[in-house]
Design goal:
Helix content: 25-40%
Number of helices: 8
Bound molecules: 6-phosphogluconic acid
Largest sheet: 7 strands, parallel
CATH architecture: 3-Layer(aba) Sandwich
Shape: globular
Strand order of the largest sheet: 1-10-9-6-2-3-5
CATH class: Alpha Beta
Strand content: 15-25%
């Protein structure tokens, strides 16, 4: 690894972490729009959507620099459960309820890429269909080796998983496919699809959001031990280096040694 990832620890989620996360996302949005006129972002489920809602809503405080320009957003799921989109386990439903549905109706809405509901009992088919959606956006499969997201926002599980990439799972070794299926996920539901590790590592920026005392032990492991650096979150740190940032609160980082400490704002 070159330079280590950035680990930010904030005193409070609402008044501190959320505005910093907003600034970070807006910086990536603005840079991506300058680069290619759109902002391509992938997001996970778990506790992330709730924190992200605090960061993104309301979409503007009136000033030009502070505008979340959803008209430029193309939103993908970093991982999704193979359930109907209106099912209570669906990450899309969660994201809709937490913030997509709360974007003011008079504003231009983002483009959201959901999984197909056609073959939900076949996780591989669902993964292949989702990969085709990525191909249609990120150009023909043979002309780009990997889709280049502008930003991927992820959570960190208590066992160090991220997306639906679980510790010691063979999916971690997948080098070729963009979207993978898993039918034995240790976190229910068992059938899911997930971006592959090479796709996560190809993104321009990767932001983790991990809050609460329940994350303390796994963060210590990831940042301080050899064993932790082999966990899925640790592999993203190792492969992504300084393009990876962690947005945490003090409860999650108590006693964790920081590679680099700071504030985005
Ligand atoms: O669909 C999922 O299960 C999530 O995308 C998953 O990868 C999540 O991000 C982590 O499990 C962390 O979840 P918490 O933030 O709730 O701990």
């Amino acid at each position: 690894m070159g330079r280590p990832p950035n680990l930010y620890s904030f005193a409070d989620i609402d008044s501190d972490l959320a505005p910093n996360l907003r600034k970070y996302v807006l910086d990536q949005q603005n840079e991506a729009c300058k680069r290619h006129g759109v902002f391509r972002i992938a997001v996970s489920g778990g506790s992330l959507p709730k924190t992200l809602a605090k960061a993104l809503l309301p979409p503007s405080n009136g000033s030009e620099e502070d505008k979340v320009d959803f008209s430029k957003w193309q939103i993908f799921y970093a991982d999704e459960r193979c359930v109907p989109l209106n099912h209570e386990d669906s990450n899309h439903k969660l994201v809709q309820e937490e913030w997509l549905n709360k974007i003011p109706k008079e504003m231009a809405q983002p483009e959201v890429f959901t999984i197909s509901e056609e073959h939900l009992d076949d996780a591989q088919e669902t993964a292949d269909e989702y990969e085709q959606k990525l191909v249609s956006v990120f150009a023909a499969r043979d002309s780009v080796k990997l889709p280049l997201f502008d930003l991927i926002l992820l959570g960190c599980g208590p066992d160090g998983h991220t997306c639906s990439l679980f510790p010691d799972h063979p999916l971690l070794r997948e080098q070729d496919a963009w979207v993978l299926s898993i039918s034995d996920s240790p976190k229910p539901p068992a059938k899911r699809i997930t971006l592959s590790l090479p796709v996560v590592l190809a993104a321009a920026k990767v932001g983790f959001v991990a809050t609460g005392g329940g994350k303390k032990d796994v963060l210590k492991k990831i940042f301080e031990t050899e064993e932790g650096s082999k966990l899925p979150c640790g592999l993203v740190n190792e492969g992504g280096g300084e393009k990876v940032s962690w947005f945490c609160d003090q409860a999650a980082t108590e006693g964790v040694s920081f590679p680099r400490r700071g504030s985005v704002i």
